[in-house]
Amino acid sequence: MQRVRVVTLNAALGPLDYRVPDGMNVEPGSVVVAPLGPRQLIGVVWEPERLQTEEVGDNRLRPLVSVMTVPPVPDPVRRLVEWTSDYYLAPPASVLRMVLPSSAALEGPRQLTEYAPTGQTPERLTPQRKKALAGIEGRQGTIRELADHAGVSDSVMRGLMNAGALGPVQVTADRPLACPDPDHSPPDLNEEQREAAASLAEAIGNGFDPVLLDGVTGSGKTEVYFEAIAECLRQGKQALVLLPEIALTEPFLKRFEARFGCEPVAWHSDLRSSQRRRAWRGIASGEAKVTVGARSALFLPYPNLGLIVVDEAHEPSFKQEDGVQYHARDTAVMRAKFEDIPIVLSTATPPIESRHMVEIGRYRELTLASRFAGASLPEMRAIDLTQDPPPRGRWLAPTLVNELQANLERGEQSLLFLNRRGFAPLTLCRNCGHRFQCPNCTAWMVEHRLMHRLACHHCGHVMPPPKACPECGEEDSLVACGPGVERIADEVAELFPDARTAVVTSDTIWSPLRAAEFVGAMEAGAIDVVIGTQLVTKGYHFPNLTLVGVVDADLGLQGGDLRAAERSFQQIQQVAGRAGRGDKPGRVLVQTHDPDAPVIAALVSGDGPGFYEAETDARREAAMPPFGRLAAIVVSAEDPSEAEGVARRIGIAAPQVEGMAVFGPAPAPLAMLRGRHRQRLLVHAARMLDVQDVIRDWLAGVEWGPKVRVSVDVDPYSFL
Ligand SMILES: Nc1ncnc2c1ncn2[C@@H]1O[C@H](COP(=O)(O)OP(=O)(O)OP(=O)(O)O)[C@@H](O)[C@H]1O
Ligand SMILES: [Zn+2]
């Protein structure tokens, strides 16, 4: 009798053993359907020696139901699942769910109805339908695709179908994917780029090779790693590019198409289920040669991966903050290791963790020191708000306003950066001082005037701004305190009524399509001033954008977590990097109350190396990451005393281990989130300590009820 061990997609279950019925062929990695009580579960066959479970006698084993007709999950992916589960203290099932995220993809071949012009043009076609029919340009596709292509609504398309102008065609849902051509349109690289590109191309097919591609903004890092992708394609291998925001995928797809002749496969949360199925099947079969995606694309079962690129590798959004709390950059390096392939971490502002890996010889570094085509890096100046303050009730200093005016007169584009969504971060009653707080979180309600709502940025709770203060009953007494991007947009509109402005935040650019519209408008010169959050700081290339104003450079330094200064530096350096990327030089004005703060001083004087050295020394001295390790244990419950009780018991049970210290428990800074009260413990450990092992044993010795949640965040990035 053959028995197998199966990891199911159910996180509440450990691995389970089954009997393989006669005639069924399974191997490690096979995706199978297994019975559990009256239900059926999807799971993956695992090497039994790698995962422990309760032994069940042969006679009690139930037989597997079936094997799914998809390729087995490859070896390196199974190793990645084990590593991620071990390192981030998450159930293997939770990680495996990211490998098999679409149940539709696991089903067999599927038929799909598409529509194509029948060649009959019905009489009396409305002008709108006539235009839609022309807009199809003879294509075939689903109603939705045709509507998208023609720029009309689905119902117009359905009208055409009912009128007989479009007819149904049955096709397989798994249409062939376009294959990128490495020689479609190669760029003419400059000397520096050529060297870096050659070195990356050389690495393809030659084993594990982590590379930090450190190039100033606008130096052509993308062009350089595209050459590595081209080599990967020539060798018939798959490549994966991870981007930090799905808003960046759309411009990336266009750029990729210009270089390789067709779009890569995109993977992100905004895909429709049919697209997700198609992408997953193409990836798993090896047909999809290049995938670009958000962090979750990292776990997909590429059978033949040849290269991973992590673009904007400094971005904090690579850290997943719920579910499996993994860092996609670090996990990507592990995947590259299991696959035995190169990985490129591309960034203009390498994080201290990655720089350190270069210093100790684990990663190699390739540098691009200058901007492409002779464009110079922008000139950066601080505006001291204590000397040059904006008028009362305004946020832009006179110097910045003058520069904006000059830019508008020259017909050049400007960008104002403020990392705060909405109109104002705080709303209070002028009469009694009442502040609007989220009922579910320790957070202020943020006014969003465009949506006419107060919103909590932590849980999404929204309410209309009340007419009267709920505390004192005074009418029309609410005042907005402080600026958000919408308020800056209002200020620009008052100062320059003719300027065309765009607010760019996750509220306005929530999908790749909206991002594409924004990029189109910028490129067409239809926007004069962009007011945006961190969403506009990265990746974009607008040659006519010559002025960047940082509205509040001190903002990121508040809160004071471990990486606050570094993050501020990166953010301002990145947003500054949007200026002067074409033939016109760029200027950056940084508004601050403290021009002598090390971050600001380093930015203005261009002494990045000095800043990093000081930051690194400080971390080394305090044994903070990457020189020491941190893990946070967060205990939450709806009942504050339950959370407190369990947190206290965990604190008391903390083992005495050399090289490890435990701080807390204490109420988390975000003491309530989504209605749950939160207590935090912080574990600080020496670099060499297997802190996960310690925490696993430690927590195994403490019990808590079902209403309490305990989560461990290894290498935390958020300290809230
Ligand atoms: N060799 C080249 N030939 C033609 N165009 C190039 C070349 N190198 C760079 N460019 C162009 O210069 C611009 C900046 O390049 P790219 O976006 O790759 O820079 P980057 O280093 O990724 O910048 P950032 O870090 O700011 O995102 C792009 O429009 C790119 O197409
Ligand atoms: Zn909330």
Structure description:
This protein has 720 residues and is α/β, with parallel strands linked by helices. It has 6 domains: 2-100, 3-Layer(aba) Sandwich (GIY-YIG endonuclease), CATH 3.40.1440; 111-172; 191-373, P-loop containing nucleotide triphosphate hydrolases (Rossmann fold); 375-420 and 485-616, P-loop containing nucleotide triphosphate hydrolases (Rossmann fold), CATH 3.40.50; 422-482, no CATH class; 628-714, 2-Layer Sandwich (Alpha-Beta Plaits). Helix content is 30%, strand content 23%. The strands form 7 sheets. A 7-stranded parallel sheet has the order 10-11-9-12-13-8-14, with helices on both faces. The protein has a 6-stranded parallel sheet with strand order 15-25-24-16-23-22, sandwiched between helices. Helix 1 packs antiparallel against helix 11 (328-339), helix 4 (127-136) crosses helix 6 and helix 5 (143-150) packs across helix 6. The longest helix is centred in the first third of the chain and has 14 residues, at 221-234. The protein is globular, with a radius of gyration of 28 Å. The chain starts with a strand and ends in a 6-residue tail after the last strand. The structure holds adenosine-5'-triphosphate and zinc ion. Adenosine-5'-triphosphate is lined by residues 187-190, 193, 215, 217-223, 348, 372, 539, 541, 577. Zn(2+) 1 binds at residues 429, 432, 469, 472. Its EC number is 5.6.2.4. GO terms for molecular function: hydrolase activity. It catalyses: Couples ATP hydrolysis with the unwinding of duplex DNA by translocating in the 3'-5' direction; ATP + H2O = ADP + phosphate + H(+). Belongs to the helicase family. PriA subfamily.
